[in-house]
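Case study 2.
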Amino acid sequence: MATAANWHATDMLPDDVLTAVFTLAKEDSNARELTFRGHDSSLQRMFWKLTRTCRNRFLKPFVFSNRGPEPYSPVLSESISRLQLSGFVGRDNPDYEVMLVKPAAEDYFNRELRTHLTEKDLGELRRLAKRFLQLISATR
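Prediction:
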């Protein structure tokens, strides 16, 4: 684990990347809260599209297998589960189809991640967040 003194954006875990993308998407949307179709298959499809349309170093951990009926990333699935367990995202509906980015994700991003990111890093993450917003808008 990197210490605060030698932490770099390349040390970001997949969970951190998702937290950054979700938080920056919420900021860019100017919404009080960010909700989106978050069923497992929907998320897998959206992030698969992100990895195909946005060549971005922050997406490298999200490797997709094409062996099943649809592309699948175990890393994405595990990261989403950890974000749910930590209270950063939630599925507050009975069908678990709509996902909500919670204030804890924003707090963590602003307190722990943002301070270590360069303007270039933030720009790359913001581009991912904007593309993510386009993808979730298309599924509404």
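The first strand starts at residue 35 and ends at 37.
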